[in-house]
Amino acid sequence: KALSYASRVLIMDEPTAALTVGEVERLFDIMRKLAATGVGIVYISHRLEEVPDIADRVTVMRDGRVAGVTEPHAPQAELVRLLVGRSLDELYPARARSAGKTLLRLKDASFKLARESAGWQPPSGISLEVREGEIVGLAGIMGAGRTELLSALYGTGLAGRWQGEVAVDGRPVKLDSIDAARKAGIAFVTDDRRGSGLMLRMAVGLNLVMSVIRRISPAGLMSPRRQAEAVKQSFGQFDIRPKNPDISVGALSGGNQQKVVLAKEILGNPRLLLLDEPTRGVDVGAKGEIYARLRALAAQGLGILVASSEMPELIGLCDRIVVLRQGRNVAEFIGGVDEHTVLAAANGREA
Asked: Is the pLDDT reported for residue 17 higher than 80?
């Protein structure tokens, strides 16, 4: 459609956000052919790995200003420095020096589905712990069961029941519904913020208070004062921009939408936070802010269990990494481990 006007300049804003690897390669091939015919292309992306594959020149913007211009094959560390104003080594905050008591304990825990479902990998014989002040990562190839484990713990997955030991704060719990999970002090951030994490047409402020609606609505009537206090707290904690609670949350950038999703769950004062792909579709600057906030929350005693397909994220952010394969935990490593070691375990090979 864009090319039907015989355009000489084509602006592409995050065109690969929802594409598969094969589709991305096809798109890049088309772009190269267009450029060869004389079409100028402005390509906007937060995926740094795409830059050397497609760009002839890179202009980095930060806070509405040009932060620098560089060659496409510049080291990724240089691009990160221009994007966030600090070095790649500073993107991930320091790990916890110690952890508190055990918040979540799974021992030989399996989730038995009420009805089998193709493509859904239920947790099977899982044993892991998450302690106060600790960020634990879940690694594994696609289909390993990372998302299924988190959704089963929160009661949003397929119908079924847990077998084996499932304990929160040292007490056995029956995690068969969202209500049961929230009463146990568990919060969950989905991997699909636009589909199931936010109400895109509603205001930012209303999205923020949805998880604490009972707390701010004594006698069934929403208190404007309590709502304003909760919204102000979230804006301060997560630096949501613009600082306007009345605009539609769908109008925010991906990074700020993700901050709203996180802030919404933190308002409920959980003990344990489950995160599924917490920085998917988020630029590197917002990633750094989210990492810093998660580490600050952990320092306050929150336990965090995070599933991510981005290996550098798990290695840089987490205190421990649990590797899943076919629904089971097959290895565990301390944060900072070599990426090849984790990948070897995920694929069932020696490092």
From this structure: no
25 phi/psi in degrees, rounded to 5: -60, -40
Global pTM value:
0.84
Residues of the chain within CATH 3.40.50.300 domain(s) are 2-85, 102-346
- Find the length of the chain: 351
Which class is domain 2-85? Answer: alpha beta
Crossing angle for the helix pair 224-238 and 254-266, to the nearest 10 degrees: 120
C-alpha to C-alpha distance for 17 and 339, rounded to whole angstroms: 24
Please report, as a single letter, which amino acid is at residue 230.
A
Find out whether 82 and 59 touch, Cβ atoms under 8 Å.
no
Q: Which of 117, 76, 142 is nearest to 277 (CA)?
A: 142
Confidence of residue 11 (pLDDT cuts 50, 70, 90): very high
**Nearest 5°: CA angle at 333, between 332 and 336?**
155
In this predicted model, what pLDDT tens digit does every residue of 242-257 receive, in sequence order? 999 999 999 998 899 9
- pLDDT tens track for 64-119: 899 999 999 998 888 888 887 877 667 889 998 889 999 999 999 999 999 988 88
- The structure tokens listed for 132 are 């106060």
Contact 62, 85 (CB under 8 A): yes
pLDDT at 351: 54
> Among the CATH numbers 3.20.20.140, 3.40.50.300, 3.40.640.10, 2.30.40.10, which is that of 102-346?
3.40.50.300
Cα–Cα nearest to 144, from 308, 318, 350: 308
